[in-house]
Amino acid sequence: MDTWTFGWTLALIGMGGTMLVLWCLSLLVLLLKKIFPYRPEQSASQKG
Fold it and tell me: How far apart are CA 10 and CA 8, in angstroms?
C-alpha cells in the first residue's frame, strides 16, 4: 500500500469513526431526555 492510499484510508476511517461516535452520543442524549424530562420548578418562577 503506497503512502497516498494509506493516508486516504486513514482519513476516511477517522472521519467515519468520528461521525459514528457523534451519532451514538446524540442517541444517548435523546435517551437521557426521555428518561429525565425537563420540568421547570413552579416555586422558582413565582418568587421572582
Answer: 5
